[in-house]
Write a structure and sequence with these properties.
CATH superfamily of one domain: Glycosidases
Number of strands: 32
Strand content: 15-25%
Distance between the termini: 56 Å
Radius of gyration: 29 Å
CATH architecture of one domain: Alpha-Beta Barrel
Shape: globular
Helix content: 10-25%
């Protein structure tokens, strides 16, 4: 019989020297409130002989179990971990939310864990805020591990703060289940220390860079198995029906000797130098040195790390990735010091001292065999120079020019294109990147910058660049340009004040740092109008300067845009005027769900999806990428659906997968990101099922969409 809620009681036991027992959820009822949860009448015996009781979470917004003290509050001073015997009773993974409440709203801890199907485990929740960033990575171990014969699942991400002297309840809930979901619960206690949290990160990386606590088909145990798996030949590369650049031989368009764009019969195309339609199937970051990971400060994480002497010395080094203005990886430990390159070391194990040349040959053969026709952004320049696949180049515009904070700032603040130093930096970057390639017909074109912070999260995020400009210091070139525009439009400060509904005694008031720029509202439509004009002006200044720099140093090749991750309509419209192709990094189930396809159709400009991927957490690295699927087996189907949707859009001219190699289990140098979404693992062994699905999907489009 279903109930909205039921009050039951759980027997409490006296504290022990090493643990304080909060409750035994298999015992007779006391001090537990069930809200949209049913409790079985009888206990069940688990495989290890332990008694458990079944609790079924019913369909509701937030079904939960609330455990409270017999009286007053618990005093957990001196205790570091909450431990709960729990087993998922369903044949699929479940999400369990744990909330621990203190005496007031400021005293609260919150954790979310994934309960895998299978045997019971001890769920451990640290009684303080915890994050994988404290261990140098963005995602922590999310699956149970064996701790001397006991399965342990640690909540590695815990938010909040708890006054342990007065704990009033523990709540277990599920987020809006659509059908009844059952778990089995047992003893519930708090213990001193935080051994389980540290154990979750101890000795988790083996000498090959693999996660030590799980197995999967591509995992290897010795050098012989590594060499055999890496050197396994890929299927034969496709040959018929394409020109030498990989273009569709059946789609004849204008031949210019360079890659260019052309619209024919209502569809946009990239066009090869020989004049054939080209749908760019690319892979990002095809390089052998992008998987380094910091070891300094966390040596206990690595098991059998090769020494920093002899042949292994080449794979050790030092670096520093501290950046106060960059949101990515903010707050992580171990972001500088000594590092190790597991991927390079594995390539050395396979091919010896000539490993890099062997890797380049093997990698190009693989990409061609898997149906790719483009070496995309951030890849090894030597691969493009081998003229087996077309390639792209990227301008990374850096310098001592000013910047504007929008609040997004994931990779840093927006460059200030009104600062004269920006134009000089753009010109220097263009001169450098075009060197030796401006006359190469195999070059597809140039990207410039990546995922700039044109906007910010939230309902008013669209205006963040305008607000951020006015928040800047008086010396900001962008701010002075914005103020000059406002002076030209309004003439006197009182007219601007009236239009915006703000107090403005003089124009000098705008010069103040952190000027309180108003958010647009219905009562003052001029604010949104003026901000929109400024966003257009800002984008115009940026894209005009960058386009001029590229074309000044290379008049032949395409400007492929700046790889939008966040954007405004104003920035996209201006980009379409100055760029040959507008590029979007679209992390979504389908490309059309990540950018405004209807707006692009009106702008009548071709689009490249410059990044996308699908990840899972069952091949070593703990992260599942930006867009995740439940298992490795589902990645290939997701790739095929995405590719079909892209090819069916007459404006999309290519898709570029991010990325070639899995990220390190312990996190990459740049920001600690550690996800599984590669075509190959840290051992350079392809993920066979996935790459076969990719090969089939690419083959269907090899002749063009």
């Amino acid at each position: 019989m279903k109930r909205a809620w039921l009050l039951v009681v759980v027997a409490l036991f006296a504290p022990r020297a090493t643990a304080t027992e909060v409750a035994d959820l298999t015992a007779s009822p006391s001090h537990v409130e069930l809200q949209h949860v049913e409790r079985a009448a009888a206990t069940e015996t688990a495989q290890d002989g332990v008694q458990q009781r079944r609790y079924t979470f019913l369909p509701a917004a937030r079904p939960q179990i609330v455990v409270t003290p017999a009286q007053g509050a618990w005093n957990w001073q001196g205790r570091g971990e909450l431990r709960l015997r729990v087993q998922n009773a369903m044949p699929w993974a479940l999400t369990l939310v744990i909330d621990i409440d203190g005496a007031d709203a400021a005293s609260h801890l919150h954790a979310v864990v994934g309960l895998p199907a299978g045997p019971a485990q001890t769920l451990v929740v640290p009684l303080h805020a915890a994050s994988p960033l404290a261990f140098g990575m963005q995602a922590g171990p999310a699956r149970p591990f064996d701790d001397n014969g006991r399965r342990v699942l640690v909540a590695t991400t815990v938010a909040g703060a708890l006054d342990r002297s007065g704990v009033r309840d523990v709540r277990l809930s599920m987020p809006a289940p659509q059908a009844a979901q059952a778990i089995l619960l047992g003893r519930f206690e708090v213990v001193p220390g935080e051994a389980a949290l540290h154990d979750a990160y101890t000795a988790i990386v083996d000498r090959y860079g693999q996660y030590t606590r799980e197995n999967w088909p591509e995992k290897i145990a010795d050098d012989a198995a590594l060499r055999a798996a890496v050197k396994q030949a890929p299927p034969a590369a496709p040959a018929a029906g394409t020109d030498r650049y990989g273009g569709n031989g059946g789609v004849r368009l204008q031949a210019t000797g360079w890659f260019h764009t052309q619209k024919a019969n209502g569809r946009w195309w990239l066009v090869t130098p020989d004049g054939h339609g080209f749908f760019s199937l690319g892979v990002d970051t095809v390089k052998a040195d992008d998987t380094r990971t910091y070891v300094q400060g966390r040596g206990s994480m690595f098991r059998d790390l090769p020494p920093d002497s002899g042949p292994w010395a080449a794979f050790h080094g030092t670096g520093d990735n501290r950046n106060a203005q960059q949101g990515a990886g903010a707050g992580r430990c171990c972001d500088h010091g000594s590092w190790f390159d597991f991927y390079g070391a594995n390539l050395y194990r396979v091919d010896g001292k000539d490993w890099l040349a062997a890797w380049r040959t093997r990698t190009l053969a693989r990409l061609r065999a898997w149906g790719f026709n483009t070496i995309a952004n951030w890849s090894d320049p030597a691969l493009g120079a081998m003229h087996q696949l077309p390639y792209t180049r990227s301008l990374d515009i850096r310098g001592a020019f000013g910047n504007v904070a929008t609040g997004y700032d994931w990779w840093g603040r927006m460059p200030d294109p009104f600062d004269p130093r920006f134009a000089r930096a753009a010109d220097a970057a263009a001169a450098q990147v075009t060197l030796g390639v401006r006359d190469d017909p195999w070059l597809l074109g140039y990207f410039a910058d990546n995922e700039l912070s044109w906007t910010a999260p939230g309902p008013d995020g669209r205006w963040a660049l305008a607000v951020g400009t006015l928040h800047g210091e008086a010396r900001s070139a962008a701010k002075q340009a914005f103020i000059a525009d406002l002076k030209e439009k309004y003439g006197t400060p009182d007219k601007l004040a009236a239009a915006w509904g703000v107090a403005l005694a003089s124009w000098d008031a705008l010069d103040a740092a952190n000027f309180p720029a108003p958010e647009p509202d219905e009562a003052h439509p001029a604010i949104a109008d003026d901000y929109s004009v400024w966003l257009t002006r800002y984008a115009e200044q940026y894209f005009r300067i960058v386009a001029a720099a590229i074309h000044r140093h290379d008049p032949h090749h395409l400007y492929l845009g700046s790889r939008f991750a966040v954007s405004t309509p104003e920035a996209i419209a201006v980009c379409a005027r100055y760029c040959d192709v507008v590029s979007f990094n679209v992390y979504a189930d389908l490309p059309q769900h990540g950018f405004d396809a209807a707006a692009m159709r009106k702008l009548d400009k071709p689009v490249i999806i410059s990044e996308f991927h699908f990840g899972s957490d069952d091949r070593g690295p703990f992260g599942k990428g930006v867009v995740s699927v439940d298992s490795e087996a589902q990645r290939g189907a997701a790739y095929a659906r995405y590719l079909q949707a892209a090819a069916g859009d007459p404006d999309i001219v290519g898709t570029h997968w991010f990325e070639y190699v899995d990220e390190p289990v312990s996190g990459r140098l740049l920001d600690g990101e550690n996800s599984h979404f590669g075509l190959v693992g840290i051992t350079d062994i392809p993920f066979r099922g996935f790459v076969e699905a990719v090969r089939k999907a690419n083959a269907e489009l090899r002749q063009g969409p």
